[in-house]
Design brief:
Elements: H1 17-33, H2 37-67, H3 72-84, H4 89-100, H5 105-112, H6 115-125, H7 132-150, E1 154-156, E2 159-161, H8 163-167, H9 175-191, H10 193-213, H11 220-226, H12 234-263, H13 288-302, H14 304-315, E3 319-320, E4 332-336, E5 341-345, H15 353-372, H16 385-398, H17 403-407, H18 411-441, H19 447-461, H20 472-475, H21 484-488, H22 494-512, H23 514-527, H24 533-539, H25 550-568
Parallel strand pairs: 3-5
Antiparallel strand pairs: 1-2, 4-5
Helix pairs in contact: 1-2, 1-4, 2-3, 3-7, 4-6, 7-10, 12-18, 12-25, 13-14, 13-15, 15-16, 15-23, 16-22, 18-19, 18-22, 18-25, 22-23, 22-25
């Protein structure tokens, strides 16, 4: 590949699935027949490379499909890939079994560490051939949901807006405009409620059947396994949620009470939550290109590693951040392992969200960039999902000293609003997690009963949340429909809340000793997926979020900052 390649120039060719399957079958036999570790290692590395190239084709197709969900070519390619990829499951498990049963197992472990086989054992335990058609059905449903969100068109303020565009109005100075914008947002979901209910009901049924095919009562244990969780379970997550309820919910109530006074309303309603300051929130000091250029300046100043990284991303067009019609309403980081290149996708909307994209998603990308250059095999290029969000959320905090570049005179506003939202997000995040547990554990609930369960969770974790009396849909619990992770990434969402704890720790460390904090952060990024979750935390000197008092310990510094700043407002 030429040195100055661009993402748009990457060639997509539909994989020759039969040829690849035959190659994997050959690799399985070669692994079984290997006479030396050198030979066995060579077979593994060749197969690892071939798999990485296969996944790269999938990734190119997925990105181009989400860039324009109306593109019929990539819509069809994605359909074919989504149907075919699950059929590789038996071969993948068979190949990993051949490695685990190899007489060179000890050599593999000595070279790649214990996590090499732990991840294989998890893959084996979470796989059943009975689930292949179910996975294919699942993907069809989640793709339909994504397309519904991407094709959303809301007519407001004389404009045709998508789900990202309408959210800018949630910060409008005129409360009636905020109220109308939120109502238009609510109406989109209400008008699609019947189909959304059907999709969610089918997903619960399909996923629970997957779990039962593996001997579980429902999907929840399988969901944990698919997230790579090997050293904690439901009991630890439940205890963490209780800490959030006890420590952060009261703090968030005080933050919103102060916000109501600050913006001159009796109480903060759902359409007021994003209006943090009476005279207006922080807004980017320039357009999309301005923000990207300032991000480049920031990453050049932050460290030599981030300078090299951002130049790589910009020069190869690996950032697609501008909002466009038919672009999927999502944000993500993915990567191309064979060329060691991350890719970042999002939709700017002219609010502080744009800064979060430039730090959060690029934090993911930087971690991938470092892991791909420091880990020997592609399975270690990606860390466990509960570690991944520490990279992104910590990068958001490391960017605070550079806020003036992006927001000018509004820099302090940005820092306060962002920190407040980082804290107030956590109760919402654990509510999303508990909601999923309820839905999978109680499949007998009707759609209306499930939605009411969300209403009860709002009362538990977000007691400040108020909706306009005329918004019947939101008042009975309709807000959960907007959270795409519930549909597309089951059991993932708790990761954002667990890793907020790590990010708040890094925030304090960075204030106390910038060099040491950055050293630990680099260790976290470079280690990739070569260690288990709790081992990775220990390696990077980050606390275990499940220990008693961990939430208070991690968030107390942020609380002090917010309370001190509120006194000055």
């Amino acid at each position: 590949m030429k040195e100055n390649w661009k993402f748009s120039e990457l060639e997509y060719v539909r994989p020759d699935f039969d040829k690849i399957k035959k190659s994997f079958e050959t690799s399985i036999e070669r692994m079984k027949a290997a006479d030396s570790f050198t030979e066995a290692l060579s077979v593994y590395m060749e197969a690892d490379k071939e798999l990485a190239e296969l996944i790269m084709m999938y990734t190119i197709s997925y990105i181009r499909h989400t860039l324009d969900t109306s593109d019929k070519f990539y819509e069809e390619e994605q359909r074919v890939l989504d149907e075919t990829f699950p059929t590789f499951g038996p071969l993948s498990v068979a190949f990993e079994n051949a490695i685990m049963e190899s007489k060179f197992k000890g050599d593999f472990e000595a070279k790649f560490g214990k996590q090499f086989f732990m991840s294989m054992e998890l893959n084996k335990k979470s796989f059943s051939e009975k689930n292949i058609p179910l996975i294919q059905q699942e993907v069809k449903l989640t793709s339909e949901y994504q397309k519904m969100m991407a094709s959303c068109k809301i007519n407001f303020d004389g404009k045709e807006l998508n789900l990202y565009g309408i959210q800018k109005y949630f910060e409008h100075e005129d409360r009636e405009v905020r109220k109308s914008a939120f109502r238009a947002y609510s109406e989109f979901y209400r008008s699609n409620e019947t189909r959304l209910e059907e999709i969610w009901s089918e997903l619960i049924k399909i996923r629970n059947e997957m779990g039962r095919n593996l001997g579980f009562e429902n999907y929840i244990p399988l969901g944990y396994m698919k997230q790579g969780r090997t050293d904690y379970g439901q009991a630890e997550v439940e205890s963490f949620r209780k800490q959030v309820e006890a420590y952060l919910v009261p703090l968030c109530k005080e933050l919103y009470k102060a916000q109501a006074k600050r913006i001159g309303v009796d109480a903060v309603y759902s359409y007021d939550e994003k209006r943090v300051f009476a005279d207006g929130n922080a807004v980017p000091a320039g357009d999309d290109d301005f923000m990207i250029e300032k991000a480049r300046e920031m990453y050049h100043d932050l460290s030599p590693e981030t300078a090299e990284f951002i130049d790589f991303m910009v020069e190869h067009d690996l950032l697609d951040l501008k909002n466009k019609p038919n672009k999927a309403s999502t944000g993500y980081m993915t990567s191309f392992s064979p060329i060691k290149a991350p890719f970042v996708f999002s939709c700017f909307n002219g609010t502080i969200f744009d800064m979060m994209v430039l730090t959060h998603e690029l934090g993911h990308a930087f971690a991938g960039y470092m892991a791909m250059r420091n880990q020997p095999i592609s399975s270690y290029y990606s860390e466990s999902t509960d570690i991944a969000e520490i990279h992104s959320m910590s990068m958001e905090q490391f960017a605070y000293p550079y806020a003036e570049k992006f927001f000018g005179a509004d820099a302090d506003k940005y820092r306060f609003q962002h920190l407040q939202e980082a804290i107030t997000f956590v109760p919402f995040g654990v509510a999303v997690d508990e909601f999923q547990h309820i839905c999978y554990a109680k499949p007998e609930l009707t759609p209306r009963e499930r939605t009411y369960e969300w209403h009860k969770l709002e009362e538990k974790y977000m007691p400040w949340r108020k909706y306009d009396e005329s918004d019947e849909f939101m008042n009975r619990g309709g807000y959960w429909y907007h959270k795409l992770h519930i549909f597309q990434d089951p059991m993932y969402y708790i990761n954002y809340t667990l890793t907020t704890m790590g990010a708040m720790e890094f925030k304090k460390k960075y204030a106390e000793d910038k060099e040491k904090a950055w050293e630990d952060y680099l260790k976290l990024c470079k280690v990739g997926g070569s260690l288990r979750y709790l081992e990775t935390l220990k390696y990077a000197n980050v606390s275990n979020p499940f220990e008693v008092g961990s939430v208070e310990k991690s968030c107390s510094y942020a609380k002090e900052i917010l309370e001190e700043q509120m006194k000055k407002m």
